[in-house]
Structure formats: structure tokens, C-alpha cells
Amino acid sequence: MNKTKKQEIDYLDKPLPLFSISMLISMVIFLLGLWGCLAIYSATSFSDSPFYYAGRQLLWLGLGMTVMLTIVRIPVEFFKKYLWMLVVAAYIPLLAVLVFGVRINGMKGWYSVGPLLFQPSEFAKTFFILMLCRIATDMPRSFKRFLVMFGVTLVWTLPIMLEPDFGTAAIYLLGFVTIYWLAGEKLRYLLIPLPFGIGGLVVACWQMPYLLQRFKGFWDPGADPLGSGWHIRQFQFTLARGGFTGSGADRTIWSNSYLPLAHSDSVFATMAETVGLAGSLPIIVVFLILAYLFYKLSMKCKDQFEKLFVMAVGIFFVVQAFVHISVNVTLLPPTGLTLPLLSYGGSSVISIMVAAGIALGIGGRREAALDAAFTD
Amino acid sequence: MNTALFKKRSYILLGILCCWAVAVSFKFFYYSIWQRSYYLIVGGKLSTREGCYTAGRGRILDSNGVLMAWSERHYDLIILDLPNAPEYREKLLKKLRMRLKGVTLESADDVSMIVKRSLSVNELEIVGEMIPRHPCLKIKTRLVRRVIEEPEIRRFIGKVKREGCMLRGTSGCEKFFDKVLSGKPGKYTIMLDRNKNWIPGTFSQIAKAVSGSDVRLPYSVAEIRNSNLKLPEG
After folding, report:
1. CA distances from B122 to B72, B125, B127 (A)
2. In angstroms, rounded to a whole number, what is the distance separating the alpha carbons of residues B181 and A208?
3. Is the Cβ pair B31, A239 closer than 8 Å?
4. Quick one: pLDDT at residue B103?
């Protein structure tokens, strides 16, 4: 066994310094989760059980942190060795949900197990990233690599689009573009599927008129304020009500009375009404800091696969957050995407913790080894 | 994969995220600070309603202080905008019949139906618990003018009719003393939610109601009953 590997295993059980990057990421994730519980409480504070959703989210957060801290201890070699088994295990539920899933808000994307609902497209994200990173680092730079990565992405996003959940499918596609580009590939290859993508979007709008309504409502919400423009208008009014300092957690009148899906798809606007610009702008900064921390962690990794994976997890996480926030400030049309860690949803929280756990396990080990190398 | 290229592209991605954050922050600032008053006004128009409520109408007493005409507030349960789902309708009506006695369905106008008139205090509590789960259920208040149950007295006292937020006398003493009896209605603003229910904590009184004054007639009930008294016109 070489000295570096021995150092990594020896330092597995030693706690990292408090301000190591891994510890900082863990703390930020936990604090974001707690902040999310406050936002969810605000969104439901007028209901008969204002603590119901917030309480459940707190439980999911606790469970998620446990999952993360458990996965951190699993060596990355396990994931490398059993990658394809894990990928198949993650993909099958994605297909099966089209047959056995339940339909909620027009989307057949959940499994119902008693009182719990599971969304397989959330759990599949981590293994999708792992798989793409593996392909990107195992195959040499070539058009063939692009075809393989793009083909795999299509195979994974097709069942999601059939649910239909175009928001999540878009995140998967953005994730593919990110990993593909970070791996050093040429951007011009992406121009090839672009016309098909645009054509597909046109066909989708034609086959599913509600999609076109969403775009119309986004473009001119005043034209149909009670129909397609409703959600956009409610975002505008909710943000205005928050002002600079917000109304407070018990006075979020608009989030409780008008804003659709205030505790999930519209949680950023709810937070804006609760704590205003002053309290919500830092969330945007925190996500940026998180992206930077994941970058710094990735730079500690020597292995290309690990570097790419750690960075990709950070980018995936932050891009989804920014898409959600962009929708809530009406910079993008509604997509149905949740704000990671802040929106209500156990599947989302657990899946983020799994991805973060693997990334922190990889990066934390390298940090500990480097730390030991400097102090020994 | 080249580490230097990876580093460079990572910085570019972080730069794109920073620009995205700036664009988002600007839009956020636009709604929450810059154009805040405009969107508050437009939003207010959507949700805020001005309403009025009837002032208490004065009583009519005879020369001995016997009450001849007075007002009572009644609470009726109505269904407004009932969803066109037969299963839901049946379930709702079954629930109502189980919890309230004397449930009927009479058409009040094109959009609403009266389920039960004059709810008691207990029934109001029961309905209050059902309303959050069934947004089509509403409680409507109405002022009812009561008069002694004698035809001669009723004729003499006269009738009232509702005009907006006021009860106006249309005949007899009610008409003759209308200015004294009617008082002034109160005005308020309230925010309504999507289901047109009042949002708690948003009630704001613009003008207080001024109750009408009581009128004491110079005649007793017996005198009115026995003689054919007529009031001057106007």
C-alpha cells in the first residue's frame, strides 16, 4: 500500500479541522436546510397545522444529515467498483415510475409508499453525474465521447420528459453540458443536437398546450392575469410585499393566500416576503460561496474523475438553485423546480445529501491526507 | 483531462454563476424596492375589497316603553361556486346533513344556494370548522326586522327593505322616522384569499357604524290596536 493511500485511510477517523472546506460545506448545507424550515413554516403559517410541513422537513433534514455523514465514510473505490450496478439500480425506478407511479399536479413522477412520496428523478441525479464523470474521464477526448455522453443523457432524460417533468430534464441536460465542458470537450459538438432540441421543444409546445401557455404567461402576464399569467403575477406581488425587511414569519399574507405552491416551487418568493431583500439576498451569495467551496474541494483531488465529480455536484446543486430563484424573480418561466434544501421535499433533501456525502467523502479524504502531509 | 483547462473552465463557470446572481439580484431589487409601490397597488386591487356593514336600526317603542319593532342579526349558511363534481357534491351534502338539522337547498340567486337559515351558535362553530376544507361554503349575515305579531301593529309600524348597506323604511312608522332609525353604515377594507374568504388580521375599519336611535311613539300598543291611527305623510 503506498504512503498516500495509507495516510488517507489512517486519517479517515480523524476529525477535520473546523474550517476545512468539507466542514464548511457541511455546515452551510445544514444551515440552508434550517433556513428552509423557516421558509416552509412561513408558507403554511395560516393553515390549521402550521408546523406540519416544517416539522416534516426538519425530520428529513435530520435523516439527510445522517445519510450524508454515513456516506462520507464510504471510500470512493466502492462507487468506482460498483458504479454500473448503482447506475442500473437508479435507472430502473426512473422507467418504472411511468407505469407504477402516481400522478400529482399533472406529473406521473412519484412512488407512493404509505404516507410517503418518493421522486426517483431526484435520487437518480447523483448516479447520472457519477456515470457521466466516469465516461468523461475513461474515454479520450473525441467525437465518440460526445456521442456516448449525449446518448446516455438522452436515455436518462427521456423517461423524465415523459412524466412530464421538463424542469428536471432541463437540469439533467444542463448537467451534461457542464460535465462535458469541464472535461475539456469542444463546445461546437453541442451545436449538432441544438436544432433537434429546438424542434423537440416546438413539438412539445404543440402537443402540450399548457407549455405554450406558460411561455405566454411569462412573456406578458398582464395579458391573462387570471390564467397563464397568474403565477408570474403572484411572484411579483409577493416580492413587493416583502420589501427590504420582510413581513415576518407569521405575516406572510400573500404566500399563504395567493402564491401557488408556496412551500415548494415558490419558496424563494415566500422567503422574500418573510425576510425581505435583506434576508434573501444573502441566500444567493451563500449558493455562490457553496459553488466556490466545491471548486476548492475539487482542486484538492488528484484523480481526474474525483475532481470532475466534486465540481459537478457543486455546479448541479447551484444551477438548480439559481433556476428556481430565477423563476421566482420572473427571470425565467415557471419550471416546477424546487430550491435545493430550502423547498419542502424529502426526496430532494436526501438526494442532495447523498451527492454531497460522496463528494465530501472524496474531498474530505484528500483534505485530511494533505493536512497530514503538511503537519507530519 | 487537463488540470489547467479544468481550472480555467471552472473559473469561467463560476464567473457565469456570478453574472447570473447579479441579474437575479437586480430583478429582485426591481420588485422589492424600485417598483414596490406599483406592485403593492396592483396586488391590493386584486385582493382588497371595500365593504360596508349595516348599522343597527333603532327600535320602535310605544309610550309605555313596550318594544314594538327591533332588529335581529341572523347567520345563514350558503354554498357559493359549488364545484361541478357530483361525487364532491354528494359527500358535502351528506356531511352537512349529518352535522346540521334542517338542511335544505334553496336557490338564492344564479350563483348561490342557501343551505340553512339562521344558524345557532353551536351550528356556527360546526360550520366554522368545515369552511377551511370546503371553500364553497360561506356564512352570510342578514338583518331581520321583527315586529309584534299583530296585523294592526304591523300595518302601523310598516315595512323595511334593504338598500345596499342600509335598511330603509318603506311604509308606516319605519318610513316616517327613517332618518332617525337608520343610523349610518360602517365601512371597512378587507383582504380576500383566492377562495374569497377573509384573510385573518387584515380587517381595517374606515368608518365606524353609527346605530340608529330608538323612537318612542306617543301612543301605546292598545291605542294603536284599537284606533285607526294614521301617520302624517313624509
Report:
1. 18, 5, 9
2. 62
3. yes
4. 83
Residue B103 · residue B92 · CB < 8 Å? no
CA distance A328 to chain B (A): 9
**Size of chain B, expressed as the number of residues it contains:** 234
Q: Which of B5, B10, B32 sits opposite A243 (nearest CB)?
A: B32
| Cβ-defined contact of B40 to A237 (cutoff 8 Å) | yes
Sequence-ordered list of residues with C-beta below 8 angstroms from that of B1, at least 6 positions apart, any chain: A136, A137, A183, A184, A304, A307, A308
Cell of B17: 454563476
C-alpha distances in Å from residue A88, one per residue of A122, A157, A219, B35 = 15, 14, 40, 51
Residue B101, chain A, CB below 8 Å: the answer is no
User: Of the candidates A365, A297, A357, A294, which has an alpha carbon nearest to the alpha carbon of residue A66?
Assistant: A357
Nearest Cα of chain B lies from the Cα of A370 at a distance, in angstroms, of: 18
| CB-based contact A182 B6, cutoff 8 Å | yes
Say how far apart CA A75 and CA A366 lie, in whole Å: 11
Strand-pair category, A116-118 with B60-61:
unpaired
Number of Cβ pairs < 8 A linking chain A and chain B: 126
Q: Tell me whether residues A241 and B40 touch, CB distance under 8 A.
A: yes
Q: Are A133 and A179 in contact (CB under 8 A)?
A: yes
pLDDT for the residue A1: 45
**B contact residues 8-27, partner A, Cβ 8 Å cutoff:** 9-10, 13-14, 17-18, 20-21, 23-25, 27
The pLDDT tens digits of the residues spanning B141-160 come to 888 899 988 888 888 899 99
For residue A237, which residues of chain B lie inside 8 Å, CB to CB? 39-40, 42-43, 46
Decide: A232 and A334 in contact? Cβ < 8 Å. Answer: yes
User: In chain A, which stretches have pLDDT less than 50?
Assistant: 1, 8, 11, 376
Cα Rg for chain B, rounded, in angstroms? 29
**Best mean pLDDT range from A302-311, B25-34, B105-114, B181-190:** B25-34
Closest CA to A246 of A37, A44, A39: A39
The ipTM (two decimal places) reads 0.89
Collect all residues of chain A within an 8 Å Cβ-Cβ radius of residue B36.
Answer: 240, 243
Is B112 exposed, middle or buried, given 0-12, 13-18 or 19+ CB atoms closer than 10 A? middle
Pick from A135, A253, A339 the residue to mutate for testing the B interface (most B CBs within 10 Å): A253
CB count in 10 Å sphere of residue B5: 12
Q: What is the pLDDT of residues A185-219, one digit of tens each?
A: 888 888 877 777 777 777 777 777 777 788 888 88
Roughly what angle, to the nearest 10 degrees, separates helices A346-375 and A3-10? 120
CA distance B8 to A136: 17
Chain A hits for B33, CB-CB cut-off 8 Å, are 243-244, 277
